[in-house]
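Cast an eye over my tokenised protein here and flag anything odd:

===
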Amino acid sequence: MKESVKEVISSELKEYLTTPTSIGPDTSQEFLTRRQVANLLQVSLPTLHAYTKQGLIKAIRFGRQVRYLKTDIGAALKEIRSLNYKK
């Protein structure tokens, strides 16, 4: 019984140690600064702030810093353009 438990533990431990793990931030989610987003959308920083307050663009706060997910910007851009054409 002890031998089978030792074998299972050693095989699992070897598998765990040989499996590559990523240490650090997840690079699949790219964060953009306010200035980068304003440049992408071709709007001013106050306009970007207004869009964020209206809920058109979701902002993520890291302490005092405000960041935006790059994936959210594409969807927000379509919505903002449709709002501009409704006027």
